[in-house]
Design brief:
Elements lengths: L3 H12 L3 E5 L2 E8 L5 E5 L10 H7 L4 E6 L6 H14 L5 E6 L1 H12 L4 E7 L23 H18 L4 H14 L2 H12 L14 E6 L7 H11 L3 E5 L6 H4 L1 H12 L13 E3 L1
Parallel strand pairs: 3-4, 3-5, 5-6, 6-7, 7-8
Antiparallel strand pairs: 1-2, 2-4, 8-9
Helix pairs in contact: 2-10, 3-4, 5-6
């Protein structure tokens, strides 16, 4: 049976092919859409390219100026934040609402702390507050530079397989992520993404008013445990903490309408859809 999510993502990728740009001596990928409205910078997690946000881009491209990025094959959190600041200037985005998920959420926090003059709003999604002890946990505990890439990819497969067993209703998104881990993300990029957290810096202090900070979390996120979610909120003190009652680590893929609704709220846009659904909670 065809995978609806993969087919829809592939359709989007044909209409919006990833562009490449050299920034800071590294080659970034990006998808750009929209020519008016507030600027939105989207940063994916470890398993995702720029087009992982395809549903949000399609819903908002007529009302916002959107740039979603794909990580380069080198560098880390510090270098990437610098590159993204330069990219914002080269694409004439001005001040941006920066949303990052997972690894991207860590990069987004570093970006906002380092470049507050470029940051209109920070949305830290399904992410962590510190890289302390990351290196002791799989897959980061592996020799990421020298371990066979098949072993690293297999590790993702085991984790995703366990999530599929626990949540068979999310089989389509798991298949999409398996394809990313299995080769859609080239080996050098995958190693670099993992090393970015393993060797990453601790986050500098954030100097943004709390009304310009939001967090997103999932009650059933298998990768970000409750104590880490609490620590993210405690560190950022957001004005709004969005909580998905279900959606795992990828609510923007499996619950796109609600994700678009919260982005509309954060960007100050009129809500185009039905807004908030049953069972969702916003904590202020």
């Amino acid at each position: 049976m065809p995978n609806r999510l993969i087919a829809d993502r592939d359709r989007f990728a044909k209409l919006h092919p990833e562009q490449r740009i050299a920034v800071g001596g590294r080659e970034w990928g990006y998808v750009q859409a929209g020519d008016r409205g507030p600027a939105l910078l989207l940063i994916p997690g470890t398993l995702g390219r720029a087009d992982i946000f395809w549903q949000q881009i399609e819903a908002l491209k007529g009302r916002a100026r959107i740039v979603a990025v794909t990580y380069p094959r080198s560098g880390g959190v510090i270098e990437w934040a610098s590159d993204l600041a330069e990219l914002c200037g080269r694409l004439d985005l001005g001040r941006v609402t920066v949303l990052g998920s997972s690894l991207g959420g860590y990069v987004a926090q570093y970006f906002a702390a380092t470049y507050p003059d470029l940051t209109e709003r920070l949305i830290a999604a399904n992410t962590l507050h510190s890289v302390a002890n990351v290196a002791t946990r799989p897959p980061y505990s592996s020799d990421l530079d020298n371990a066979p890439i098949e072993e690293i990819r297999a590790g993702f497969g085991r984790g995703l397989g366990a999530w599929r067993e626990a949540h068979p209703e999310q089989a389509e998104v798991i298949d999409l992520l398996m394809a990313e881990a299995a080769g859609r993300i080239p080996a050098p990029e995958l190693r670099t993404r993992l090393n970015a957290l393993k060797r990453g810096p601790e986050l500098p202090p954030l100097d943004l008013p709390r009304e310009r900070i939001a967090t997103i979390e999932g009650a059933d996120d298998p990768l970000i445990p409750p104590q880490m979610r609490d620590a993210v909120r405690a560190r950022l003190n957001p004005s709004v903490a969005y909580r998905f009652e279900w959606g795992g680590h990828f609510p923007y893929v499996v619950r796109p309408d609600l994700y678009v609704a919260l982005l509309e709220e954060q960007l100050g846009l009129p809500v185009a859809g039905d807004g908030w659904g049953k069972g969702e909670m916003r904590a202020r």
